[in-house]
Specification:
The complex is a heterohexamer, with 2 copies of chain A (119 residues), 2 copies of chain B (118 residues) and 2 copies of chain C (96 residues). Chain A is an alpha/beta fold. Chain A is 34% helix and 23% strand. Chain A has a single domain, classed as DsrEFH-like (Hypothetical Protein Ychn, Chain: A), CATH 3.40.1260. Chain A has a 5-stranded parallel sheet, sandwiched between helices. Chain B has one domain: Hypothetical Protein Ychn, Chain: A (3-Layer(aba) Sandwich). Chain B is an alpha/beta fold. With 96 residues, chain C is α/β, with parallel strands linked by helices. Chain C has one domain: 3-Layer(aba) Sandwich (Hypothetical Protein Ychn, Chain: A), CATH 3.40.1260. In chain C, α3 links the parallel β3 and β4. The two termini of chain C are 12 Å apart. The relative contact order of chain C is 0.25. The chains are: A alpha/beta (119), B alpha/beta (118), C alpha/beta (96). Chains in contact: A-B, A-D, A-E, A-F, B-C, B-D, B-F, C-D, C-E, C-F, D-E, E-F. At the E-F interface, α1 and β5 of E face α4 and β5 of F.
């Protein structure tokens, strides 16, 4: 099936980003296509390459970047939400692209299922 | 045309969910799809009349809700019990959604191609 | 002790949790989405009228106004940020 | 329709809100802090036993294990992320 | 020495509050103050035995709770009703806090120079 | 009195940062001293100079920076929380300093009151 994933919470503060990541991996492993992961509201904070967690902790941005590049998935960071929170081209990591909110509507039109991960 | 729905279920201003729900309604309207809007739970508080944001500096989105019809968004629903539990009647709102019963909510979601909850 | 409540009572149990610990007479300030607990005519209005008898119940005017809430249960005191500061001068505060 | 619950039932009303709309038989998946609703012996355990009769009640094993919760009410189905994906294949999802 | 207290009142892992509460206990311990720790509401879930984080990659903080005594943090309390409502007894926990009644909670907070809730 | 303020939520996502700002202004207007504002957990996100909200919206970082510099208040951004979320010297705005968690303990020891603004 064609899946979409929507994330509206930031990494570390809340488990939503972790859950979304594990869900995405499981969906790919079962042969599903992920049309797009849309990072929205505080979810845009998943995309900063400046993130530097403690060395014994998971690195959420790097996990995402690897998932995006290895599987060629479209990762869109909502531009308005990103600007509000200081996420710009200057800090965005590999595998993420900044895009408009319309790309979430397009995902809703094209995907068989969209799963939201939120607070 | 895909059937798409935005569900408002959180209170306004305390978190950004309601604001972003409204942004989505406007964007979806521009895509010429079959859009519905549904207010349930604390989401009914987002269309309360009389908002005055001068003391906080946070943007008041009431005027945008009032303009939804101008964007051809006409399928707007509200859950009766959510209104009643919060002591609100149709006179309290800046728009006039169609009142539905809680038993219709899941069915209405089920009919959509996709929907988002804010 | 001043108890600060900033979540909607329809979605969060933080007010009920707080009430379990707050001694009679302790002031409670409702702000942000917490102000909905002071709204008249809700399904919790009777409960809150009792709370307003056991506690000094305050509500932040700026957050009320932003949400368009004007009809309040009896016994609630509207204050502004100046009043918020005064409550903190007089009490240690717990943020639920 | 699959209903996703990720908040503690002791702090959030999202499960109760969801139950008001979910029709009999609709699957409910408890994950993240939502898994505490499936814990045995709590003050909501009787209520949840009833929910488990009216709905297909699932709980995410990874989130259970992380929280050290092993005793569950009767009628709950443990699944992993594979099972989560299968539920989404079969149902549209609502995230409360 | 100032009396300081950390109150745990949220469930672990779903949000970072419990983790940061624990970080604060450790830091405060290093300042040689009169530190208390209190578990109420969902905070009692943070010291549950048997946590296995291998499925999520999120750090398990149980070992750190177990080490609190080594940091000379000995005033550790738990609200009886919060435990009981969650079906938990002292056998369920990685440490052995002293059980208090809900009526003592506010008084205990009041006695502190300052306290933080996580 | 000597006040301390603790903020654990990010700007825009939640009202906590706004409330804290209005409270701080009112406390200063009443002649209180604010020993420190401690930005913790997602609260660290208040400090990025890359923040760029819509032109008709409040600019939360600039409000804070003005408050800090005009009143010479100590604004500390928790280093561990900041690193986890991509807040580094590279992006931190005027008036904010990165510091250790011990500075929150010190605030608790020194302040007459510490008020938490959280989700």
């Amino acid at each position: 099936m064609k899946f979409g994933i929507l994330i509206t919470e930031g990494p570390y503060q809340h488990e939503a980003s972790d859950s979304a990541y594990h869900f995405a991996k499981a969906a790919l492993a079962k042969g599903h296509e992920i049309l797009r992961v849309f990072f929205y509201q505080d979810g845009v904070l998943n995309s900063t390459r400046l993130m530097e967690p403690q060395s014994d902790d998971r690195h959420i941005q790097k996990q995402w970047s690897a998932l995006a590049t290895e599987n060629n998935i479209d990762f869109i960071v909502c531009v308005a939400a990103a600007k509000r929170r200081g996420i710009t081209d200057e800090v965005i990591a590999e595998g993420f692209k900044i895009g408009g909110l319309g790309m979430l509507t397009e995902l809703a039109i094209e995907a068989d299922r969209v799963v939201e991960f939120r607070a | 045309m895909a059937k798409l729905m935005i569900v408002f279920r959180t209170a306004p201003y305390g978190s950004i969910y309601a604001f972003e729900g409204l942004e989505n309604v406007l964007i979806m309207g521009a895509y010429d799809q079959d859009i519905s809007v549904l207010f349930i739970d604390d989401g009914v508080l987002t269309i309360k009349k009389g908002m005055d944001n001068s003391g906080t500096g946070i943007k008041d989105f009431s005027p945008t809700f009032r303009a939804l019809e101008a964007y051809d968004i006409e399928k707007i629903f509200i859950d009766r019990q959510s209104m009643e539990e919060r002591g609100l009647t149709m006179e309290d709102f800046v728009i006039e959604p169609e009142v539905i019963e809680s038993g219709q909510v899941e069915k209405m979601m089920e009919e959509q191609k996709n929907f988002f909850m804010f | 002790m001043l108890h600060l409540i900033n979540e909607s009572p329809f979605e969060s149990n933080s007010l009920e949790d707080c009430l379990r610990y707050a001694s009679k007479g302790s002031p409670i300030l409702l702000y942000e989405d917490g102000i909905y607990a002071a709204m008249a005519g809700t399904r919790i209005a009777d409960r809150m009228a009792g709370v307003a008898q056991d506690h000094k119940l305050y509500v932040l005017r700026e957050d009320l106004a932003m949400r368009g809430v004007d009809k309040l249960i009896a016994g609630v005191n509207e204050i502004d940020y100046d009043g918020f500061v005064e409550l903190v001068e007089e009490n240690k505060t717990a943020s639920w």
